[in-house]
Amino acid sequence: MLAKVGKFFAENFRRWLPDSFIFAILLTLIAALMALIFVGAKPFEIVQSWYKGFWILLAFAMQMILILVTGYAIAISPPAEKFLDWLSKRVKTPGAVYVVVTFAGCIFSLISWGWIVLTAVLGRELATRVKGVDYRLLAACVYTAFLPWHGGLSGSIPLVLNTPDNFLIKAGVLGTTIPTTMTLLSPMNIVCGLSLLIVLPALMLLMKPAEGSVTEFADMVDEGHKAVKPMTVEEEANSLNLPGKNLSDMLNNSLILQLIIVAAGLWFLVHHFATKGFDINLNIMNFLFIMVGMLAHKTPFRYLIAMKRACSNISGIVLQFPFYAGIMGIMIHTGLGSAIAAWLAGFATVASFPFIAFLIGGIVNIFVPSGGGEWAVVGQPILEAAQTLGASLPADQLTAFIARSSMAVGYGDAWTNMIQPFWTLAFFPVIAAGTKMQARDIMGYTFISLIVSFFIFAICVTWVPV
Prior knowledge:
This protein is an all-alpha fold.
């Protein structure tokens, strides 16, 4: 039954959803029209505001890019490959494949959203080893396992809130940072993450198709595609060495140089966490991932090659973030953001606003499929509305209310990824390589994940304490 429902929605979503860049353009035009109508901004004032904002997220965009590529580089390192090989040898049945891929993928997503590629590698390996695995459902398991990411260590919104001089502080929306103890380590986020870890693997197992309707990996192989096993990072590095001994190759492949840098970086990180506790932000996470990636790949040249491969997935962020920033500029400089905040505060209450913020996060994510980009668009009005609604609360309760509302937006962003195929671009080069697999083949299954996860997110943002 669930498989039939999934197939129905998969076919329809293919017809409804254009490319995410089109949404960025449309949302820009919608923001401009709203500024014209609702706050009386003049046309050239809107254009000027758009341009003022266009470049204000360059540092933030770079932080988002690094979160993706540094996590990806770790995912394709030898230690990661050895771990996946060890794990895949212990999974013997199709049902176990769905459960293990979803559960392991949730753990990977909680560590880094760039690790979705690690989930894809695990899934593909298991599909080639275990008979009777439906490859479309397996790919849906990979994407479903992406749901917990915004409550994890690479969650854009909680890390931004704890990053000194972040764009919201610079814009005067926030007075100071909000620690991760009130976001990532809050009871709400822990309960939400644990619930997803338990429910999602069981859900994907329930969608297991009957034996006669299974489409295996072999059934989806593109006969016109010549299957060539790609070189590992180490093999590619070795193939680029010059004949004989030479200084350049010695430096490129120097383990000692790499270890000196890694030792210095880890020294700083140990001191940071020893003196500040669980204090993580975008800069700390990126620095940590760079050091771990360098250690995992052992030499500068191998890490360079790994990062080069990882950077093949950043075009969407590079192109679209300036447009998200432009929308933010319209929001700030025309007064539209404040007007939206006042409107939200006018009909919401302290009790209902986090759920409303969750729905806003989910809706906007369809148009702006990036946690960081979406926060750039809606962060200001959400925070201003939360501050207005919670004005009578004591300072600590107000901060907790802002943290809850902000995390609610993050959950909404992760939630509607299940019907927004943008982030399939991050793992389809792995899971779909050499096959006829398309995003539409999995979106029906992930729509079911969207329905089920709605109740987990809604309950957590509404009733579980921060």
